[in-house]
Amino acid sequence: MLEVAGERGYAATTVEDVLARARMSRRTFYSVFGNREECFLAAYDETQQRALDRVAGLHTHHSSSPGLLELALTELLTLAATRPALARVLLVEPASVGPSGIDRYERAMGEFAKRLDRLLNGRSRVRGGALRCEAAVGAVERVVQARIADGRTEELPRLARELAAMLTDMAQSSEGDPA
Amino acid sequence: MTRAAGSSGRRGAGAGRLPHQLPAGRHGLPRSYVNRNQRDRIVGAVIEVVSRTGYARLTVRDVIEGAGVSRRTFYQHFSNKKDVFLAAYDSVVEHLLAEVRLAHAGGRDWADAVGRGLATFLDFLARGPALAHVCIVEVVAAGPDALARRARALEAFCDLVRPDPAWLPDDQTPPPLATEVVVGGIYEIVFSQVSQGRAHALPMLWPELFLNLLLPFLGPAQAVASVERSQPPLAVPLGPRG
What we know:
The complex is a heterodimer. By secondary structure, chain A is mostly helical. Chain A contains 10 helices and no strands.
């Protein structure tokens, strides 16, 4: 499912395509998944978890947060550059699934935002910090989506440093809060 | 044949006619006006239905009922539900961009222009939660063509935000991705507020969002000063003031 949906998009993916790629019988497929949507959502959860795990693994080895953020972004953007199909499944295709896909997507991005908040703001609850982290994750999403859309994913890893610097500024700008 | 109201109109005497429906029969209106009016009604119905049910459960039948047009009229203008949704999206974005551009044009300098544009953007969405839902949230559910439209709309907002280097302080060179990042960040916040049914509260986020927008371009000190100078976040003066 990951491969097929990543290549031609969820809308154009049929259960037959998935069966052919997975060399699986129709019966086996339907003993595991109720339908195409369920199968996609399972693939989605797995991809998202894998991406989160890759970033989580870094936490233990590094301590400075801006450096860690750059590292995490490099990791994720390199993943997107080397496996554009995965990036497409994670960031573009949920929209074609409908409400369940969008809901999953929102939750996944929320999880990334929470981790970013924890990484940059630690345990101290910075006022407006969560909102800023949400914005920061959203910003990265748009940057990656735009590159997926015009097939320029290979330039993503090079953007990690600049993005990390901007996100750190964005997420930690609470001192000057005029409100 | 200039019958506009379809089957319900054929019952005659205007019975059951909604206020925005044209009277049935020969009303002597030019064809182009009737078309325009029908099209607008259909687009209006799409926005109403989608904000209630979501794009996934949008049906042509609901649109026809909401707009008070015949099935045939519907298919004279649009080929299917995606087509009509994209038309509704385009229409909302066109109005939104027009208002934002107008506010932006009245700015004293770059920061002020962007602040006014942002305030108008938030205000537009707060005034029309149904419009907000369609153009911010449901567009994501309408497939690849809709996403391409959204990308174009975001690009238009980027063009408004991107500063002429002449406006920036000499010691500030914004990172090349700055515009993309700030616009993407604002979109994300707006998306999550609108999808939680909090479009009405968006204008309250103006100081925070405006600050975040200015930050990569002006640096913290100037960004804060600009936000303070631009209070209160009243967008366009609505006509000549008092």
